[in-house]
Amino acid sequence: MKQLSDTLLLQSYHKAIELNLSQDFIKQIEEEIQERSITHLVDKKFTQVG
């Protein structure tokens, strides 16, 4: 994931949620987003509830 651009990382995150992929995989993406300090770029309509 380190090699992905910020844009591609965020697109991957949105697609993983849309496709209801593994929660572990989504969590890994979320951790990378937090590590890069780009959480403000995550579109809130795509965030998961609970």
UniProtKB/TrEMBL annotation:
Q: Which InterPro entries match?
A: Sda, Sda_sf
| Pfam family for this entry, one | Sda
Its keywords, alphabetically, are:
Protein kinase inhibitor
Does the UniProt entry include the keyword Oxidoreductase?
A: no
Recorded GO MF terms: protein kinase inhibitor activity
Name-wise, this protein is Sporulation histidine kinase inhibitor Sda
